[in-house]
Amino acid sequence: MSFPQTASSSQASGKVTDAITGGTLTTIIRCLAGSSLDLVERGKTIFLPGDPAERVYLLRCGAVRLSRVYESGEEITVALLRENSLFGVLSLLTGHHSDRFYHAVAFTRVEMISAPAASVRQAIEADARVGLMMLQGLSCRVLQTETMIETLTHRDMSSRLVSFLLVLCRDFGIPADQGITIDLRLSHQAIAEAIGSTRVTITRLLGDLRSEGMLRIDRKKITIFDPVALSRRFS
Amino acid sequence: MSFPQTASSSQASGKVTDAITGGTLTTIIRCLAGSSLDLVERGKTIFLPGDPAERVYLLRCGAVRLSRVYESGEEITVALLRENSLFGVLSLLTGHHSDRFYHAVAFTRVEMISAPAASVRQAIEADARVGLMMLQGLSCRVLQTETMIETLTHRDMSSRLVSFLLVLCRDFGIPADQGITIDLRLSHQAIAEAIGSTRVTITRLLGDLRSEGMLRIDRKKITIFDPVALSRRFS
DNA sequence: CAAAAATCAGCAACCAGCCAGACAGGACTT
DNA sequence: AAGTCCTGTCTGGCTGGTTGCTGATTTTTG
């Protein structure tokens, strides 16, 4: 499978765009009744399946992992949210309150703000620009999630992994001395849970990529030397 | 892989919820400057990659397939949108207009309404309830897309197919004399493109399911006899 | 601060599942 | 009636899942 011609255009939903609305939304949500600013330590749970869905969250710093836990103990990652992502959208849905069905965990140290869905609704009715901004935030979420679906439909694991690494570069990449470093401490297991593979396979494939000189891993942080070259690695 | 205990709760984003907002949104969008009601024949293109993204769409009847076409000629399905889905969200993103990067095709005969993003923005500013409804519509989209990600992370194709069929039941299912019929004419190829597999594999797996007495296929329409039993088919 | 515990990375052997490619017969379209 | 698209089946071959073990690294705890 080869990459689409317009691959780069999918970067349109980049960090820059939502940083603008995200920043403004922060100040707005902070003023709502019942809002709070929370600091969550790495690994701590934000909400659990079964909790009532009544708050909307805006991630300010760090990464949040949404996952589904199966009876077998297996766990899959549904989304890795980056800065300025809106989440807990379930609570926005019409009146009758439902329960969360995902597990939200702080993947890094997290700084986020949240407010009751009711307050958010009021705020929107009071000032329509709030709704517009949230709409843009959610649009970003949709586009990001769709990119992830593209990643997951790649048939061979190698392409899938590469595609995922590029997504991570987009969402969590910071410029490094040589290349781009993904600013997350990723275990092979965590990657496997995100792309529907196994720990062993990820170990092998990352080993391949490293010996090909595409990336470097230092204390669980991956540095991609040349994302463009990596994206060409599709046949 | 086994299904999560809370599987049924993910149905919270069911058709009922968005039918309400969808219906109201229709009348609102119809009144916007530059809005239009379009009928599109099965197989016709709604927008192409590279087209300017300037309109927002609301699907009223039928199904729309969003897909990505690769240079190799391969095509993968990013989303199969059902009634009352909002799409073309890219155009909602901040000012500077970008280009579509997905291919949107009418998967069935489609009835949809659309309006320029600018009109939508104005409408939201004029009446905040419009923003609220669109927000709910998009929230549904996010939840649907995330369910699809769950489907795609199943490791064996059999689970993946079953999970996909259940999603289709949720989104396109109509009660039949015995069981639920998915109201779409699905070729094996189309299914393969949606779950990242191949036509041949889908043929084999559907054959297995049929000989197990789980479903029936009549003129490309699949009827699931007992969705609950099917969901138990995970080991 | 060092010892203990837990988590993680790497390697190997085995084998099932799925893909590729090819072909024939059936169903639908026009 | 011809052509296109779709389904069904087969063979070989390889990817990637599974299991099990070892040493390294990180985190927790006394």
TrEMBL record, chains A, B:
Coiled coil region boundaries: none
InterPro entries registered for this protein in UniProt: cNMP-bd_dom, cNMP-bd_dom_sf, Env_Response_Regulators, HTH_CRP, RmlC-like_jellyroll, Tscrpt_reg_HTH_Crp-type_CS, Tscrpt_reg_NtcA, WH-like_DNA-bd_sf
Example of a GO cellular component annotation carried by this entry: cytosol
Domain of life: Bacteria
SMART domains documented for this protein: cNMP (SM00100), HTH_CRP (SM00419)
GO molecular function, one term: DNA binding
Pfam families reported for this sequence: cNMP_binding (PF00027), HTH_Crp_2 (PF13545)
Residue ranges of domain HTH crp-type in the record: 155-228
Alphabetic keyword roster: Activator, DNA-binding, Transcription, Transcription regulation
Record-annotated Cyclic nucleotide-binding domain positions: 16-124
Role, per record: Required for full expression of proteins subject to ammonium repression. Transcriptional activator of genes subject to nitrogen control.
PANTHER family: CRP FAMILY TRANSCRIPTIONAL REGULATORY PROTEIN (PTHR24567), REGULATORY PROTEIN CYSR HOMOLOG (PTHR24567:SF65)
Alphabetized NCBIfam families for the sequence: NtcA_cyano
Protein name as it appears in the record: Global nitrogen regulator
Protein source organism: Candidatus Synechococcus spongiarum
